[in-house]
Amino acid sequence: MRVFITGATGLIGSAVVAELLGAGHSVTALVRSDDSAAKAIAAGADTVRGSLVDLDVLRAEAERADGVIHLAFGNDFSSAEALGRNIAEESAALATLGDTLVGSGKPLVTVSGTPQAAGRPSTEDDPLPTDGPVGGRSISVNRTLELASRGVRTAAIRLPRTVHNEGDGGFAGLLTLIARQTGIAGYPGDGTQRWPAVHALDAAVLFRLALETSPAGRAWHAVADEGDQVRDIVAVIARRLGLPAESLPVENFGPIGPVFAADQPASSARTRAELGWEPTHPSLLEDLEKVQP
C-alpha cells in the first residue's frame, strides 16, 4: 500500500514510518524543511514539500495514495491564540484529505486524545469532548469519522497524554522541559490525577493495524499504561534532573494547564481484543529513567 503521511518526522511519525516500511508498505511523507526531508529520506520514505496549510498538496497526494495517515499538528502552545491557529489549520487539512477520499473506500487514519470518563477509565465508546482548550480537534476528528458513510474507511487512533520514547515525548516530555527551564519539577494540583501512556513504537503498530484492517468509522485506544499519577511521573523526572518536585498552580502550565490537571485514565481492552494489538515496549515510568540530567 502506498501511504501518504503528515507529521512523518516527529517522535510518533518516525515510528509509524518505520513500522509501515517494515511491513512492506511504501511511504510518501509531507515535509516542511530540508532537515525533515533528509530525515524522511534516510528512513526510506519518499517526500513532498509542504505543510498543513498547503491544501492543494494534500489533495494531490491523497488522490495518489492508497491510504492516508494524518499526524501533523502545530507545536506552538504558547497561548490560546496559537493553539487556536493550530486547531484551525488541522481542521482545514483534515477536511481536505477527507473530501478527497470520498467514495474511494481508501483508509484515512487520524489522531486524537483519549477522552475523560467520570470515576473510571475511558473506553473506545466514550465520546471525545468538544469543549475546552482542545475541543476543536475533537470536532474535526468526529467529522472525519462520519465520512465512513461517504465511502472513506476512516479510523481515529486516540493517543494518551504521553507517547514516549527514550524518556522523551508527550506531556511527560513537556513537564521535563518545563523543569529544565524553571529549575523545579512541577505538577498541577496534588498530583493524584492519572495520565495514560504508550511507547511510540507500540503506538506505531496500532496505526499500521488500523490502516490495514480497521472497519470504517471506528476509534481505537493506543493505551499501554492505563494511568500513572502525575506526581509519580514528576518524581522520576525530579530525581533524574536533580531538582525538587513541587505542586504548582495550574496557571503555571499555560493554556493547556487545565488538561494537565485532569484525571484521565483510559482503557484499551477493546482495541486489544478486536485488532490484536499488544504493547511490548517499556512503560512510561521505566522509560523516564532514560531522562538525561
UniProtKB/TrEMBL annotation:
Record region (Disordered): 108-140, 270-293
Pfam families for the chain: Epimerase
InterPro entries tied to this protein: Epimerase_deHydtase, NAD(P)-bd_dom_sf, NAD(P)-dependent_oxidoreduct
Range of residues in the leader sequence: none
SUPFAM superfamilies associated with the record: NAD(P)-binding Rossmann-fold domains
Superkingdom in the source lineage: Bacteria
NAD-dependent epimerase/dehydratase domain segment(s): 3-218
Positions in coiled-coil regions: none
PANTHER family xref list: NAD(P)-BINDING DOMAIN-CONTAINING PROTEIN-RELATED, PROTEIN YEEZ
Name by which UniProt lists this protein: SDR family oxidoreductase
